[in-house]
């Protein structure tokens, strides 16, 4: 009988906990309902405001990636002016990409702490200042340094753009905005050498920086008139204006600075690397996507030399060698839009619960995984003097078409697999590996093509894409099993 009071106390305590949890659930439900109908909710913004923001972040992505490659045609001038080797003149391209890979590791968690808008407002002016320094550089060291930090401060805007779109657009409507967003930075990277080639033909390499600024400033200026879109920050602002935010209990429950800093470092900064190393879905897809991104920069550095050696292209004509890649990039979204309209959405409508597993997004990637190696092998065997240069350009178009039809669905698949909670970390892991390869591929590309020749070097690259072509097919079948085993899985 002596244990009866304590047992009764425990039962009462459990009952109180259940009542408190029920009250908390009801409060959260009421808050969610209030937020759903709140005009400050980005999902409730007007279509005009949403479209303007989507176009703005896409254009910013275009400018930032254009800045990474517009310098490439000026490498010969830089090598001659500073009396350095051809390999050393590539370092400003590689260091820009290293900066692009490092920036999101800090910027993504900062955007989740302070909001998206403040990140845009801080990093874009600093990016512009380092572009200015790049233009005024009078040594290779200062050029490399300015290009590196320009990449660091360009990358946050590129990294959080997809999250900004996700803030405004519900999952069922995200495909078209994300297709646009993932395409425009690639177009920027491809059009950079074309613009740079025409600049170099008439001006010095310093003008690649001035042209970047002339394009960037009018695009960056409208950010001043945008609104914050991140839900967590908006709710925190609303809470601070409510009487609940002033309660004593809330002050007592407020975590210490040390605990918040620990969570920031271990969960936000550490998670991308952990996911890259331990998550099979993240690891293999990021490797596949990063290899394709490396191919893009490999062609940016190598294509002018290939067409100059094989077809005798002069400096301006060398810039035209990128048109095949550019056209392939521009056409790739058409296939993905077709799949979205005539395959994905009808299947979604027929689904009893109006829900499809993330693997349904991989149809385009399965097609692209076949086109990519086909285009590379076609380029390998047609880039020769007795065949018109239009044929290898067409082959490069197939390469880029196949690459993007893998890259875009894979990016959407990662976001839908890991959800809002872990999707940013998975994207950060992707950015880290993607720009790591984009920085190293241009360094060995000229030597590889010089020693192996165009055909053999391209066949080696094609062989790697054949080895990785099965990744989307395997995930299409075994992805659900891998997601269930993941500790970062998102419950449907």
From TrEMBL:
One cellular-component annotation, GO: plasma membrane
Single GO term (MF): spermidine transmembrane transporter activity
Predominant location category: membrane
Gene3D superfamilies per the UniProt record, alphabetical: MFS general substrate transporter like domains
Major facilitator superfamily (MFS) profile domain boundaries: 53-480
Transmembrane segments: 53-72, 84-106, 118-136, 142-166, 178-201, 207-225, 281-300, 320-341, 362-383, 389-412, 432-449, 455-475
UniProt organism field: Elsinoe ampelina
SUPFAM superfamilies: MFS general substrate transporter
Leader sequence residues: none
Name the record gives this protein: Major facilitator superfamily domain-containing protein
Annotated compartments: Membrane
Entry keyword set: Membrane, Transmembrane, Transmembrane helix
Lineage: Eukaryota, Fungi, Dikarya, Ascomycota, Pezizomycotina
Membrane topology label: Multi-pass membrane protein
């Amino acid at each position: 009988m002596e244990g009866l009071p304590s047992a009764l106390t425990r039962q009462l305590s459990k009952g109180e906990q259940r009542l408190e949890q029920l009250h908390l659930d009801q409060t959260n439900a009421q808050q969610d309902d209030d937020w759903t109908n709140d005009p400050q909710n980005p999902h409730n913004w007007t279509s005009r405001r949403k479209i303007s923001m989507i176009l703005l972040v896409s254009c910013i992505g275009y400018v930032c990636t254009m800045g990474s490659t517009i310098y490439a045609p000026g490498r010969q001038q830089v090598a001659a002016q500073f009396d350095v080797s051809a390999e050393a003149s590539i370092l400003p391209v590689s260091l820009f990409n290293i900066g692009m890979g490092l920036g999101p590791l800090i910027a993504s968690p900062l955007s989740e702490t302070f909001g998206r808008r403040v990140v845009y407002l801080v990093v874009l002016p600093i990016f512009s200042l380092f572009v200015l320094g790049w233009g005024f550089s009078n040594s290779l060291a200062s050029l490399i340094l300015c290009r590196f930090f320009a990449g660091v401060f360009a990358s946050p805007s590129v990294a959080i753009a997809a999250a900004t779109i996700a803030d405004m657009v519900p999952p069922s409507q995200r495909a078209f905005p994300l297709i646009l967003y993932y395409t425009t930075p690639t177009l920027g990277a491809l059009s950079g050498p074309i613009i740079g080639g025409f600049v170099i033909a008439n001006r010095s390499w310093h003008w690649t920086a001035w042209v970047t600024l002339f394009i960037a400033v009018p695009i960056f200026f409208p950010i001043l008139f945008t609104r914050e879109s991140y839900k967590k920050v908006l709710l925190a602002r609303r809470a601070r204006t409510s009487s609940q935010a002033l309660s004593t209990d809330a002050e007592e429950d407020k975590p210490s600075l040390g605990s918040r800093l620990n969570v920031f470092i271990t969960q936000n900064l550490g998670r991308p690397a952990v996911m890259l190393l331990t998550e099979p879905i993240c690891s293999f897809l990021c490797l596949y996507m990063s290899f394709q991104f490396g191919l893009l920069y490999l062609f940016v550095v190598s294509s002018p030399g290939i067409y100059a050696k094989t077809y005798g292209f002069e400096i301006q004509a060398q810039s035209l060698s990128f048109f095949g890649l550019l056209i392939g990039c521009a056409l790739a979204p058409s296939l993905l839009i077709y799949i979205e309209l005539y395959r994905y959405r009808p299947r979604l409508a027929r689904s009893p619960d109006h829900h499809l597993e993330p693997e349904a997004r991989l149809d385009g990637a399965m097609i692209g995984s076949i086109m990519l190696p086909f285009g590379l092998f076609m380029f390998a065997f047609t880039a020769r003097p007795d065949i018109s240069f239009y044929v290898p350009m067409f082959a490069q178009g197939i390469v880029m078409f196949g690459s993007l039809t893998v890259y875009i669905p894979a990016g959407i698949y990662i976001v839908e697999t890991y959800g809002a909670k872990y999707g940013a970390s998975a994207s950060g892991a992707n950015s880290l590996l993607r720009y790591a390869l984009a920085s190293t591929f241009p360094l060995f590309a000229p030597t590889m093509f010089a020693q192996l020749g165009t055909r053999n070097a391209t066949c080696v690259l094609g062989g790697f894409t054949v080895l990785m072509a099965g990744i989307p097919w395997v995930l299409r079948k075994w992805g659900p099993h891998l997601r269930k085993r993941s500790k970062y899985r998102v419950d449907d």
